[in-house]
Amino acid sequence: MLADTVDHAGISCQVGIELDQLDENGVTLPDAVLLDMALLEQSHARKLVEECHDRKLPVLAAIPREAITTYNPSLNPDEILIIPVSEAELIVRVEQAIFRVSGPSEPKLLKVGDLSIDQERYEVTVGGRRVALTYKEFQLLVLLASNPGRAYTREALLSQIWGYDYLGGTRTVDVHIRRLRSKVESPGHSFVETIWNVGYRFSAPA
After folding, report:
1. Do both 172 and 93 map to the same domain?
2. Do both 19 and 83 map to the same domain?
3. Do 10 and 90 belong to one domain?
4. Residue 89, domain extent
5. Closest CA relative to residue 137, chosen from 205, 200, 204
6. Residue predicted with more confidence, 18 or 37
7. Listed residues 67, 102, 137: the one ending a domain
8. Under 8 Å between Cβ of 132 and 180
């Protein structure tokens, strides 16, 4: 269940990787390690947390809601989350753990063709022309452009951008996508592709 939440949040992950494998040549270090406390003994989890700290790897502990009262703070992960957890909260807590260990990241700039997205300044330009987007439109564009080719259902976009408690319905997604397209697209420059009966995906211009 936790792996499914991570996947639906748009975070790529590998399940069950031994930390020793991270020391092998050619293995790319992960951005963070997430421990599912529903599957781990406290002693094993504590050993894993220590190994992550030794490697300067951000580590999160996912604690089942029914086990909160037995949580031992001496485990000392960089961040905890209570499961089940929403995709939006998962993303925030992973980013928080990374920030605590690694500090602020370099300015993030996404470029696709003549589309440029500055995630630090919340600025979008197309062919050098600055485009004014609402915050939700900007979030949608960043999510889609960060995962080109991946199809997102309307429900997934709704939960990740608006949150599970939003009652506006999936039509809200269609309205914002339409407005986003009207601002960043032009004849011969299409970025957001409709997948009929599914949702949307980002497709770089040919």
Report:
1. no
2. yes
3. yes
4. 2-102
5. 200
6. 37
7. 102
8. no
Residue 34 reports pLDDT greater than 50? yes
How far apart CA 22 and CA 3 sit, in angstroms, is 20
At 41-70, the pLDDT tens digits run: 989 999 999 999 988 899 999 999 999 999
Residue 22 is given by DSSP the state G
**SS3 call for 36:** strand
> In this model, does residue 8 exceed pLDDT 90?
no
Report the C-alpha gap between 48 and 30 in whole angstroms.
Answer: 14
Question: What DSSP element (H or E) covers 124?
Answer: strand 123-126
Last residue of some domain: 102, 136, 151?
A: 102
66, 60, 65, 101: which is closest to 79 by C-alpha? 60
pLDDT tens readout for residues 82-134? 999 898 899 999 989 988 887 766 557 888 888 999 887 889 999 889 999 99
- Which pLDDT score, from 0 to 100, does residue 35 have? 94
